[in-house]
Amino acid sequence: MVQASEKVHCLIIGSGPAGYTAAIYAARADMKPVLYQGIQPGGQLTITTEVENYPGYADGIQGPQMMIDFEKQAVRMGADIQFGLATKVDFMEQPLKVWIDDEKLIEADAVIIATGASAKWLGLESEQRLNGYGVSACAVCDGFFFKGKEVAIVGAGDTAAEEALYLSKLCSTVHMFIRKSEMKASKIMQERVFKTPNIKIYWNTETMEVLGEKKVNAVKVKNNQTGSEQEIPVSGFFVAIGHEPNSAIFKGWVDMDEAGYLVTIPGSTKTNVEGVFAAGDIQDKIYRQAVTAAGSGCMAALDAERYLSAKGHI
After folding, report:
1. How many CB atoms are closer than 10 A to CB 307?
2. Is-contact 236 216, C-beta < 8 A?
3. How many domains is the chain partitioned into structurally?
4. How far apart are CA 31 and CA 305, in angstroms?
5. d(C-alpha 96, C-alpha 308), whole Å
6. 260 or 119: whose pLDDT is higher?
7. Residue 1 domain-assigned (yes or no)
8. Mind telling me the catalytic residues?
9. 1: pLDDT confidence band, cut at 50, 70 and 90?
């Protein structure tokens, strides 16, 4: 049974750097934003350990603490932060409708979507147990910690090739595991990988287990053709098999690309739906960094402010 609806000027869905930054800017502009944190408050940074590449944290910071800082700042500015998951939308007409946890209906003059994307994993228990302790889904984020060390990467597409090349500039050896006898990456990316001497490719190879108690120290792999297994000593294990944008509930309402990322009008955060804006990894499959997500959260709040002002809502 649907509860009585709540009416808000600006609703923000998602609580990573994009969502919290949008909340900070929206609150300062007196848009009285209400933010729902989603299933993973703080987003992907809450499963990250040390963050060293976000400006302003000279000594680095733990990902979860960074998101606590973002949330505190949003609250101090006057944002209303709520726990709950957006489960359904109706963007047919104003006010825009969003259901939280299948029961609470929010009616909003503007909606900022910042639901992010989730990394795809192999599904290994050891992979999840050591996530943040040598296991990572972002070479650009975490490669620096493995400077001069041996690492492994799983994946066969352009992203895996790019990340393997990035790691090859930092690490002594990059062991690249490819499940089939060929790569899915573009020809030019494949050629770059093949020409890089410290990238060692293992064809027809699947990861069986990531080894280590408190941190990664090796990986156990199996050759699909011969059935032979081996353990390879590594300090880091990178998973590069893609990301899944958290966009399912917006299907049929907001324009998406073939992978499910929301499409925004170039140079803005506006979607095809009037009053609906998208920020962060939900619309960015290229950079996927905390700082770029925060930047687009700022853009979304400014776009929403202009929209609401033009409509006479604020």
Report:
1. 19
2. yes
3. 2
4. 7
5. 13
6. 260
7. no
8. 138, 141-142
9. very low
